[in-house]
Amino acid sequence: MILLNLSHPLTDAQVAQIEALAGQPIARLIELMPQFENGAALLEQVRALADHAGLSSREWQTEPLLVNLPGLAPAAACLLAEIHARSGHFPAIVRIREVAGSIPTSYEVAEVIDLQAIREEARKRR
User: What pLDDT score does 98 carry?
Assistant: First the structure.
């Protein structure tokens, strides 16, 4: 599985949590920490970010992909559309949450969400 991390760096513990929840090892971790410029077109920045991941057309379409989305909601939405166009389906995503009561603040992996499964289930309600 390829993990495309577009948020904060992941700890070893978080990587282990992701592997446990996904049920498979991370064969390749691609970490890109985007900084979006408000004065530039967002879609162009997202396309460049997807290109910068360095995946071939074949990899986008055949490799299992898990994504830790950027925190900027419009960028995350554009990125999901870009990934869907490149791969032919929605990826699974990682949800990180704050550990309640942790001092100093720490974060854990809350869940892995299969967006393609959500889409397929939602289509039944059309």
Answer: 95
